[in-house]
Design a protein that fits this description.
Elements lengths: L4 H13 L3 H21 L5 H24 L3 H15 L8 H15 L7 H12 L5 H12 L1
Helix pairs in contact: 1-2, 2-3, 3-4, 5-6, 5-7, 6-7
Length: 148
């Protein structure tokens, strides 16, 4: 997995040169979250750790978009969506649904899962394979569909 920190640094420089304050602020916040995790953990983060932080930040934005949408706050939804687009630029390419379905079906066959009660047996191996490149909610939904 490629480390997104160099891309973040380049994007921050470009945003500052272009006087794009919204983009600059989002990237600074991402860098701050990475730095805070390094301080909290008292060690330098791996590329996987950095991607996990970016995914966590993207998840926060998605949840905010849902909540603001339910509250009818379209002005706040637009701001969160703009931030999410910027964050997603630095995340690895996500798997599409067909790729996840193929992995889920292979794991189901491998572990011999037959019912929704076997969901735990399937989720662990699937998440190990798709960590960082597929959304957990989508994986969960697909596993339920395949077992149900």
């Amino acid at each position: 997995m490629q480390d997104p920190r160099p891309a973040l640094a380049d994007a921050l420089k470009a945003a500052m040169k272009n006087k794009d304050s919204a983009r600059r602020d989002v990237i600074r916040n991402l860098n701050g979250a990475i730095k805070q995790a390094e301080i909290d953990g008292q060690h330098e983060l791996s590329a996987e750790d950095v991607v996990a932080i970016l995914q966590k930040e993207a998840k926060k934005r998605r949840e905010s978009i849902d909540e603001y949408g339910k509250a009818g706050r379209d002005d706040l939804v637009a701001g969160e969506q703009a931030e999410l687009v910027i964050i997603e630029e630095f995340l690895p390419q996500q798997m599409d649904e067909a790729q996840v379905i193929a992995i889920v079906q292979a794991v189901i066959a491998e572990v011999g899962a037959t019912s929704p009660a076997d969901m735990g047996k399937v989720m662990g191996p699937v998440m190990a394979q798709v960590k960082g490149v597929a959304d957990g909610k989508m994986v969960n939904r697909i596993v339920k569909e395949q077992l149900g």
